[in-house]
Amino acid sequence: MEFELTELHFVKANRTACFDLHLETLEQLLPWIFALDHTNYARDLPIHLRDMYSLKYMHPAVHKEFTEGRFVGQKTHRNFSCLALDQMHEQLICTIKGDGGIIDRKEDPEALRRARCLREQNPNRNLLESEISAVTASPTADVNILDGTFTVQAPRPGTAST
């Protein structure tokens, strides 16, 4: 029962964008990770926790942003609706790919409008772009999609070569 309650507190920490509770519940989950023999998490989670706790001293600006709730994303303005950034990324990929894939979507003005809206609603966009200097918009690009080390730029309607 203790494990399930800790998991629920972790979900609450992410959904309410509470960074301190997020770190506290990760710390409480750590013994369970070892006990359940999740090797990769057991190896990487202590390092992640150390890095997150050291943000306060090493990168105070990032720590301030995280404590203000910018370690998660929010697609709606409803309470308890924040999601971890990797979950939002996966949902965005599914939305972009859809049935026709990204190639069919770049021809559809409505799909481009939705992608623009998603980009503008992302509260972490400015922080991410200021931290990663490699993300630069092309004058003909309408949508920049950061995926790991790659930036995909979708052309504006009417500027794509046929």
What does this structure look like?
The chain has 162 residues and is mainly alpha-helical. It has 2 domains: 2-70, no CATH class; 84-155, no CATH class. 62% of the residues lie in helices and 12% in strands. It contains 8 helices and 4 strands. The strands form 2 sheets. Strands 1-2 form a two-stranded antiparallel sheet. The protein has a two-stranded antiparallel sheet with strand order 3-4. α2 runs antiparallel to α3 and α3 (39-58) packs across α4 (60-70). The protein is globular. The model is unreliable at 131-157 (pLDDT under 50).
What would you say about this model in short?
The protein is mainly alpha-helical and 162 residues long.
With strands numbered from the N-terminus, the spatial order across the biggest sheet is 1-2
The helix count comes to: 8
Helical fraction equals: 55-70%
Q: H/E order of the elements?
A: HHHHEEHHHHEE
Rg from Cα: 19 Å
- Structural category is mainly alpha
Looking at this protein, list some descriptive labels.
162 residues; mainly alpha; two-stranded antiparallel sheet; 12% strand
List the helices and strands and how they pair.
Blueprint: H1 2-15, H2 19-35, H3 39-58, H4 60-70, E1 72-74, E2 82-84, H5 85-97, H6 101-105, H7 109-121, H8 125-131, E3 141-147, E4 150-155
Helix pairs in contact: 1-2, 2-3, 3-4
